[in-house]
Amino acid sequence: MDNLNSFEKNPFLKIIDNLIAENPSHVKKIEKILSDNRNDLKSADNTNIVEVFSLLEDEFMGFVKSEFINTSSQLDILIDIISREGNAIIKQDWFSRLYEKEVSNIRGKVKRFKKDLDDDKSDISYSRKRDYMIYLACLHTSYHNDEQNNLEKKITTDEQSILLTLSNKLGLSQEEVKLINYLILPIQNIEIEAVINDLKSIGVVFYSKKTNTIYVADEVVRILRKIRGKEVSAKFYRRVLLSLREPLINLICRNHGIDWKMSVEEKIKSIISEGISFKGILSDDIYKGGTTLTEKKKFLNELVEKKLKIGSPIRGSVLEDKIQNIIRYFEEVEKDEKVGISIDGYNKLVSDLSKVLPQFNKLIAHEYQFQDGTVISSEFLLDFNIKPRDILEVLNQEDLIDFCNKNEIRTRGDFILNILDAYKDSDNLYLENYENIGLRNLNILKENGIVIKEAEVGLKFEELTKVIFTKLSFNVNEELRKNLNTSKDKADIILDMGKNEIIIVECKSVKESGYNKFSSVSRQLKSYAKQAELNGYKVIKSLLIGPDFSDEFIKECGLEYELNLSLIKASSLVKILEGFKGSKHKKFPHNLLMRDVLIQEERVLRAIGK
Fold first, then answer.
1. Which of 187, 298, 408, 494 is the S-S candidate for 481 at Cβ 3.0 to 4.6 Å?
2. CA pair distance 241, 250, nearest whole angstrom
3. CA–CA gap between residue 235 and residue 241 (Å, rounded)
């Protein structure tokens, strides 16, 4: 939402306002959030808007579902496009091409599907064809029954609910339902401007006219997937399918009319694209006839523990509960912002994959439907919540083996986990160069194997400082930092000491031999402290981290009594971390940072070494 102006947010905010006016289940919590913004959603910052939306997810889902009554809206097609992992940020011209391609593909599929239904000798089994004809007849009646009363043809919410239950009981995939729908109501091309306006009007996309870019929020994507009956994102669906033996993949294909003679990769892609129920495959499709509930539960336990290697226990006394808890696990993983390896490790992994596998960029762009000419980088992928394991799972086994061999990565066991393990140590390289990063010494960094742009140095210094304090057992509270920060006052790091007490940390990278802008930094820190106190937090200490400080700066700092400010050189902080690692302490004694104006690492190291 930071990329949008107030006018571009208005359609979405209007819908949220309307939902609030209907007295939703969490209305009191919502009113409490908005009370600090004159009860006006438009005056609220983006953090509060996201918080309000999280309390209205059920109501918003109901609102979007009601729009499916409009049979000419093509929401099934449009939602399938915008809820794909690579389409959260998409240019209008590329969205137009994807839409036209999707409509063309569906027309071709509908034509072939109708031919197979009419052909007694088609490959569709008698029982499956019977299921299709039952659903087709019910859909026809639901759509045309209004004509008898001289009313506009449409499918009501109640009829839609019955059809959904019927399709689930018949075991129809989303793709099968879509094809039958368009047998009754032939698909028509709609102007792309009208399509975008329709999506804006129901609050599922934001559109920036200035950049001709469509944005779909992660929170909205998760809701849209649920509406379309997709219990997990494609990347987690793929992960589970990759963990199954090929005979089980073949069982799923046979149950849903997919060619089981294709390669494993093609079969997995077809299963996902067909919209086959994730719950359905784990509860029924992968088991032979006569498999008992006990045997199914045993299989799922082995799948979770040995194949997927999920560390936390997936509970559930009955099969349905266990499957639902697997889905919840993947939902939590998707919301988790952790990358799995360091950001720098991800950078190096993408770079190495591009060098070793010439088709890597093209493969990833095709898999996630990125626009032609897109340059694949770790930063770009993370904008779409695509993480290291996600891209490795797109590669076939031959490519993974080739990559491991050329990078001297062990090939025994799980290739993907071996590769991820090999790229976990990149953080150490950056920590070893922490002082050089603080000094913005790009030449030395390049000699040491670190290529970084001048504009990125400050942020990298800040990120590494967070890593160091986390390793020192401090609670680097990012959520609290975001809540305390305003558009004017933005602290770099907040250390949450508990009981509403915090330490504010400011990071300064500078080319000069000693940082000397005391008046500037003191104003910043005082402003941050005031903002924290207004929110009920006590600032017990302020720390300034830099590569070096001038004598004059240190002197002025010693005369400042309001901030309780101490200075730490970058080299000192790294030495303190190394000393802490070798000490008996499990938690760093923070009082050691509370005394001196300029923290002396020798004194700290002696204290923790006792």
1. 494
2. 11
3. 10
